[in-house]
Structure formats: C-alpha cells, structure tokens
From TrEMBL:
The keyword Hydrolase applies. Composed of three domains: the N-terminal N domain, which is responsible for interactions with the ribosome, the central G domain, which binds GTP, and the C-terminal M domain, which binds the RNA and the signal sequence of the RNC. It comes from Gemmobacter denitrificans. Its EC number is 3.6.5.4. Residues 266-279 form the SRP54-type proteins GTP-binding domain. This is Signal recognition particle protein. Keywords: Cytoplasm, GTP-binding, Hydrolase, Nucleotide-binding, Ribonucleoprotein, RNA-binding, Signal recognition particle. GTP binds at residues 104-111, 187-191, 245-248.
C-alpha cells in the first residue's frame, strides 16, 4: 500500500500549504487503508471528513510531499480519537468487593480475558480475586474458568448445577463479602449474535451485581460487525470499556476505531494470545500505526520535521554568531521558554536550581514576566524589532502603551536584550553558539 501511496504522492504538487485537492487525493488512499483494516464504513467516512477539514490549509513540512503530510495528520488524529480523554486504564476496584462484569459474543475471549485480568490484578496489584462463571449455556464453560483459575492460582466460585445466572451472581456476591475478596469477576454466557433472552439475563445480572466495570470483550478480527455488537451492548447493558482480543493475529484492528467512535467508550486492554500473560494495556499509538499501516510514512514526516527544526537551530546559531540578535530572535527565545514550561519548569529541570527558581519568582522573574515581555515585542513595528537601536523616547512610550505596560519595563527588556546580544557575540567567537542553540531547541 505504501508503494501505491508513494506513486500517488509523487504526482502531487509541492506547495506551502495543503490544498483541498492534495488532501482529497491522499484521503482517498487513507480511506482504502481504513476499510482494509476493517474500520466500519460510516466510521471511516466520518473520520475522513473530520480530518479533511483539519488538514486543509495546514503547512507542509519541508522535504515531505503534501500526501505524506496528510498521512501524518491522519495518524495523529487517529491516535487522538483512540486515546479519547486519556481515561485511566486501571480498573476501578476500590470499595471491595468490586464487581467486574464481562460481556460479549460467544468465542470473543471473555473467559480467557477474565482469567488474564484476574492474574494481572493478583500479581500487579496484590488483589484477592474471585472468579464466577455465569455461563449456563455451555456445559464445559464453568469448568473452563475453574481450570484457568487453578492455573493462575485464583479462587473460583464452586459450581452448583441447575442455578440461573442471577442466582450464581447472588452467590458470588455473598461469597465475595464473606471471603474478603477485593474483586469478583462475573463471566457471562456468550451468545452467537445479539439475542433478546440472553440480553435480558445480562441486564438482570447487572441490576443485581451493580458492577464497577462492565467490559465488552470483542474479537479484534471482527470488522464491520463490531459496531453492531458494541452499539447493542452499550445500549442494553451499558459498558465502561472494551477489551480487544486476538490482536496477535493478522487483523489490523480497525474495530478499535469503530467502537471508540460509536460508543465513545475507551478501549482498555488488548489480548495478544492464548497464554495468561498475553494481555496489554491499550496503547493508542501502537494500534493507530497498525490500523493505518503506513508507519514508514509517519516516521518519514517526523524525521523531516526534526531535520527542519535542526536546520532552523543552525540558522539561528549562525545569526547569533554574527552578533545578529534582534527582537524577533528574543521573542522566539521567550516563546521557546514558555513552551518548555516557563521559567519555573525550565529551572526545575536543572539540578540544584529549585531554590533559584523560587528566588527568581520572588524577584518577579516569572511566567507573567515572559508574557509581558512578549507583549512588548508584539507592540513593536517590524522595523523596530529588526533594529532596537531605533527606540527613542516617543517610540518607547507608544510601545509600552500598546502593551499596557510602563516604559520602565520596556527599558528592562531592552537592557536584557543588549546583554544577551553581547553574550551571543562573545559565545559566537568561541564557536560555542551552535551547541548552545541546539541544546535550547
Ligand atoms: P468466550 O466464549 O468469549 O468465553 O471465549 P473464550 O475465552 O473461551 O475464548 C475462545 C478462544 O479464543 C479460546 O481458544 C481462547 O484461547 C482464544 N483467545 C482468547 N483471547 C485470545 C487472544 O487474545 N489471542 C488469541 N490468539 N486467542 C485468544
Ligand atoms: Mg466463556
């Protein structure tokens, strides 16, 4: 696919900003990639539409084609959508015993995932976990969970023949309270497709158990169908998150995007095999890369951006070395400082600077000052910025008034600029400048 894309992109014009035609051409290929990854059609369509309006008009990084730039934008947007609001992946298990209800289609991996999560909670969080199978549909299902439980050293609720799912859930609750368990997993019966009777059963279990988490387990290899499953379960039972299984297979995991977009619920974990350790917290970056399948292009654009920044740093270093340090340079320095977390953030990063940061703050040398200084520079004309020597009394008055500040403050800024310019010149002679600027960027 990347080769195909490469061909398309070569034909695109090299322009400063992404035109609508550039974006459209690239997004046609992205659409194919999404559908190949089994993202559901309506989700792919909406996603492309959102990216289109975001991408059109954006600047193109030097040395990449507009098409490549679009792929990078798509990738970043994909990560953003998959990550959601950055919900914590940790399961809510305070107020023991906390119930975790596992739901999903038959064969999606509910029972396996239940055991995997139980093992994780036991080993990583030191929790006392109880497993309960509510699967009265398949004769071997209860034994399956009990066997997995024994294998990972986690208790399972004794099997009593002839109980309904609700009765088992009730018994699990009692047992969890009596036995001092932190967490109790309710592993529900699978269904081949959405089925009213079984859905009613899950609702009844939910009402009784009041789960802290209801996790929908979905086979990552199912594409289009994942949306229906997620929609139904979310509407009828209400889910708190999704576990995507079989992500160790060939599937590209487009279901992740579909479900995230349709339900708005976070993907919490991914299953990566049949073994009990084969589960990971969901990582948006990884899954986005896989869905798009254009990792090489994303990496290329990132590299190009780094190169571009390095070139900028070098250009600045050359200017400074020649003693060229005007107000525009000072402004980009100040802005860089703001970006790096301001004075406090910057000093906090250096060892032993904590005290100094505090002293600086007391002396009024803080982020507000950075902002005031930037405002002063903004209030200068282009000419004045390029040549601060022009600044005589009347100009100073105008600039200070424009920024809503005192002339004294402008004078301090000018003095600071002069000191910095002198220092730059000295450093430039010693050839230290390049390193210094690079370290700053
Ligand atoms: P349930 O019917 O939803 O309870 O599904 P099961 O937990 O019984 O799993 C069905 C099959 O899928 C079993 O053979 C599991 O070993 C397998 N399975 C579950 N999760 C994964 C996974 O993440 N990767 C792979 N390769 N197989 C899995
Ligand atoms: Mg099962």
């Amino acid at each position: 696919l990347s080769e195909r894309l490469g061909g398309v992109f070569d034909r695109l014009t090299k322009a400063g900003a992404l035109s609508e035609a550039d974006v459209d051409t690239a997004l046609r290929e992205v659409r194919v990639a999404l559908l190949e990854a089994d993202v559901s059609l309506p989700v792919a369509r909406d996603f492309i539409k959102a990216v289109k309006s975001k991408a059109t008009g954006q600047a193109v990084t030097k040395s990449v084609t507009p098409g490549q730039q679009v792929v990078k934008i798509v990738h970043d947007e994909l990560v953003r959508v998959l990550a959601g609001d950055g919900e914590p992946e940790a399961l809510k298990i305070d107020n023991p015993p906390a119930t975790i209800l596992m739901v999903g289609l038959q064969g999606s991996g509910k029972t396996t995932t239940t055991a995997k999560l139980a093992k994780r909670l036991k080993e990583k969080n030191g929790k006392k976990v109880l497993l309960a199978s509510l699967d009265t549909q398949r004769p071997a299902a209860m034994e399956q969970l009990a066997i997995l439980g024994a294998q990972i050293g986690v208790d399972s609720l004794p099997i009593v023949k002839g109980e309904t799912a609700v009765q088992i859930a009730k018994r699990a609750k009692t047992q969890a309270n009596l036995g001092g368990y932190d967490v109790v997993f309710l592993d529900t019966a699978g269904r081949l497709h959405i089925d009213e009777v079984l859905m009613d059963e899950v609702q009844a279990v939910r009402d009784l158990a009041q789960p802290r988490e209801t996790l929908l387990v979905v086979d990552g290899l199912t594409g289009q169908d994942a949306v229906n499953v997620a929609t139904e379960f979310n509407a009828k039972v209400g889910i708190s998150g999704v576990v995507l299984t079989r992500m160790d297979g060939d599937g590209r995991g487009g279901a992740a995007l579909s479900m995230r977009a349709i339900t708005g619920k976070p993907i919490r974990f991914v299953g990566l095999g049949e073994k009990m350790d084969a589960i990971d917290a969901f990582e948006p970056e990884r899954v986005a890369g896989r869905i798009l399948g254009m990792g090489d292009i994303v990496a290329l654009v990132e590299k190009a951006r780094e190169t571009f920044e390095a070139e900028q740093a070098e250009r600045m270093a050359r200017r400074f070395a020649k003693g060229l340090f005007n107000m525009n340079d000072l402004k980009s320095q100040l802005e860089q400082m703001m970006k790096m977390g301001g004075m406090q953030g910057l000093m906090g990063m250096l060892p032993g600077m904590g005290k100094m940061a505090k002293a600086a703050e007391e002396a009024g040398f803080d982020d507000r000052m950075l902002r005031r200084q930037i405002a002063l520079i903004n209030s200068m004309t282009k000419k004045e910025r390029a040549n601060p020597d022009l600044l005589q009394a009347s100009r100073k008055k105008r600039i200070a008034a424009g920024a809503g500040l005192e002339v004294a403050e402008l004078n301090r800024l000018l003095k600071q600029h002069k000191q910095m310019a002198d220092m730059m010149k000295k450093m430039g002679k010693g050839g230290m400048m390049k390193q210094a600027v690079k370290a700053m960027m």
